[in-house]
Design goal:
The complex is a heterodimer of chains A (533) and B (308). Chain A is mostly helical and 533 residues long. Chain A is built from 17 helices and no strands. In chain A, 66% of the residues lie in helices and 0% in strands. Chain A is globular. In chain B, helix 8 runs antiparallel to helix 9. Chain B has 308 residues and is mainly alpha-helical. The chains are: A mainly alpha (533), B mainly alpha (308). Chains A and B meet through helix 1, helix 2, helix 5, helix 6 and helix 7 of A and helix 1, helix 3 and helix 8 of B.
Amino acid sequence: MSTSAALDHSHDHHHGPAKGITRWLFTTNHKDIGSMYLWFSFAMFLLGGTFALVIRAELFQPGLQFVDPSFFNQMTTMHGLVMVFGAVMPAFVGLANWMIPLMIGAPDMALPRMNNWSFWILPFAFAMMVSTLFMEGGGPNFGWTFYAPLSTTYGPPSTTFFIFAVHILGASSIMGAINVIATILNMRAPGMTLMKMPLFVWTWLITAYLLIAVMPVLAGVVTMMLFDIHFGTAFFDAAGGGDPVLFQHLFWFFGHPEVYIMILPAFGIVSAIIPTFARKRLFGYDSMVYATASIAFLSFIVWAHHMFTVGMPLAGQLFFMYATMLIAVPTGVKVFNWVATMFRGSMTFETPMLFAIAFVVLFTIGGFTGVMLAITPVDFQYHDTYFVVAHFHYVLVPGAVFSLMAAVYYWLPKWTGYMYDETLGKLHFWLSFIGVNLLFFPQHFLGLAGMPRRIPDYALQFADFNWISSVGGFLFGFSQLILLFVVIKCVRGGKKATAQVWEGAQGLEWTVPSPAPYHTFETPPDASLIKAQ
Amino acid sequence: MASESSHETYYVPEQSKFPFFASIGLFLTVFGLGNVLNDISADASVTGSTWTALIGFTILSFILFQWFATTIRENRAGLNSAQLKRSYVWGMSWFIFSEVMFFAAFFGALFYVRTLSVPWLGGEGAKGSAGEFLWPEFQAAWPLLVNPDPSAYPSPHEGLNVTSWSPAFFAGYLPFWNTVILITSSVTLHFAHVALKAENRKRLIQWMVVTVALGIIFLGLQAMEYVEAYGHYGITLDSGIYGSTFFLLTGFHGFHVTLGTFMLAVMLIRCLKGHFKPNDHFGFEAAAWYWHFVDVVWVGLFIFVYLW
């Protein structure tokens, strides 16, 4: 190839970002795109959180006070959809964009224009999805799992827009995942062997495989819905020889790997933060890699544990029960390794570390309730109760969301060049920690006592735990405004951050200045900088 | 950056308008389509929504055309290092894998209804009691020629499956000839690839023309089969699960063949323009992989939709 043309071209890159709004609309820079993903996901977090607060306000007392049941159903549905597809997944993609090229010594993501397309699909998809709330007949009201026939025979007309929104969100996720895989497999600096990659990179590589494997299945299942609704096919209607349970199988074949898509990158973040603040190398790096791969593999063969009460042959129930319990083994390896990393470390407790430790403890609680739910005969009792709600919110909120907050505090100085306000950060942590436990812990008891989920009203004996939960919800929700304030304050200035930022931090991202220059690693870093984890 | 080391500079493109405007095009397409479908269901006029979808699709097509043209121009200008080309290879490979998983959903649905849910509806096994309560007269069969509730889903008269294993039957069996055509097209495409690598331009173009023609013939025969299915067999989209699985599996496959034929036709034009070099023809290879993938899916369809 003509080297001079390439060199001439790369010369253009030494200027900074473009001015004005077009910097963001037309960018190909992984840091810009990462920032857009992160801001978008935070906006969706606040929107989905607002929907959650409508739910908690309604459930503060027994009886119907604020919203009618149909709108309540729209709120539970949109809360789930916005949080899963709008807040958690894009936040991890944003971190992948920002950090993976910095961690592996690459100049950018492998396919920079497609990278921007992955992002810009999202605002349009969510504009369409959220606009359904204002359409005739209301928005989707069948839960984020959109079981047929609730979503086909009985769904509102706006379901069509929900389906198309899922289609283009899926396209965005697949393009994003392809980009991550191409970047990690092809763009590593010389000397960055696979087993020297930071765990965040490893977990994202495996997450990207999960995305490519299951997002098309989700596209397939919503396509079947579309045809059942508009073209008279019978996929999910037994009268025509189909089966509503088929919907559940297809949905959960996507859905279970999906929950690991939302937690594996969190494992990577925590595996970066704990060694930094324990000032020790990560305990059991290799076993962490293998455990992540094992969890990903198992995620494909456990889906029907979401469907124990639907009427499955006994052999199916037994298989899915035992396969599900197996997941506790690699997950246990991970928790053991995090604790062993902290053991006899020189620990300090800056905000990222507080969130990371809370993650280990609270995610483990969510994992334990997961083992309880895996036991088929016991699940018959817990199914569709608040116990399930408590379980998956423990793994998603003090799990995935806490890891995201830990990540934001951990890398914010690298992004902005300034230290964030540690006092406010700690305040945010403690209010979130107290709020989240007040919010979700009582829901375990509600569920065990038999309170069903997705219900706007309840029997009197559930009143006490519900008001505690609602108080926790509002405390947690409004505490997130502190995060917004801390981030804005940090962007605008503060104590200058060094390149190293944290005393114990390891990895290539800490070898570039803070804030990270617009273009980094246009030539690969020196191989001597790349150390075993 | 002037060192002539073994490291080639990875080409990171400048700002690009394509992604943002492609998003607008994609959004208008699906938003318009959604409105078309809902307008039809509500017996409302579809004029506005059709225009929205068409405008969106025009924008999307125009942008994608420009986008591909730009990447071709960049490659021909020598901006793409060997490393960048590997990114394209990874990208195309995993895109094809995602397509495999898309078809897996529909194959999975077929396996599930044939081996589990239809027999259960017919009263078989531990889960058979539901069928006895719902439609006691229903008999499990495949092709499903009597639906559980024929008043809701008019039953097809006849299936399209293989009914005899005699050579005489296959000689007149359209799906068999479609299988022959598609497998042949994969072979002719391979010959074209060999000719490209041997810099035999004439052969290359001949084999490409044959391949594209075979793709078009396949689509024509498939259209004939659909007309037959609707007209003579009573197999329609709303004729129950047999028609549902048949049309979505073969329909999405046909859609992919259409896309693949289009890709190969573009590659033929690029061959005529002399874009490809024996050691640098990723666009050709990507289209070829896609074509072979579509071929493999058809073999799966032939086995599980027609022979089984």
